[in-house]
């Protein structure tokens, strides 16, 4: 997983809504979100970026950082 900078907001129910992320100096809009789950690592959210690229983002509360991982065989492109 790669560390990222991310912009999120909290909706009225307190749920995290990812809006955009920056990875290696490039900005990407989040066009939609999918499945969410929590485990011992932290909070995971599947997101989609333009071009129908699907990524998993992870918030790790211990170090208060976000991480990104491509889903499936998609290469992470900057």
SSE order and pairing:
Blueprint: E1 2-10, E2 16-23, E3 26-29, E4 32-38, E5 43-49, E6 53-60, E7 65-70
Antiparallel strand pairs: 1-2, 1-7, 2-3, 4-5, 5-6, 6-7
Characterization of the model:
- The protein is mainly β.
- The chain has one domain.
- It is 0% helix and 63% strand.
- The chain has no helices and 7 strands.
- The chain has strands spanning 2-10, 16-23, 26-29, 32-38, 43-49, 53-60, 65-70.
- Strands 3-2-1-7-6-5-4 form a 7-stranded antiparallel sheet, with no helix packed on it.
- Strand 6 and strand 7 (65-70) form a beta hairpin.
- It is globular, with a radius of gyration of 12 Å.
- The model has no long low-confidence stretch (mean pLDDT 91).
Summarize the structure.
The protein is an all-beta fold and about 80 residues long. It has one domain (about 1-70).
């Amino acid at each position: 997983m790669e560390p990222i900078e991310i912009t999120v907001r909290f909706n009225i129910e307190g749920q995290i809504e990812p809006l955009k992320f920056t990875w290696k100096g490039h900005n990407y809009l989040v066009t939609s979100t999918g499945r969410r789950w929590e485990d011992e690592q932290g909070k995971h959210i599947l997101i989609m970026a333009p071009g129908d690229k699907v990524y998993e983002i992870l918030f790790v509360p211990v170090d208060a950082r976000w991480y990104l991982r491509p889903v499936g065989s998609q290469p992470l492109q900057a």
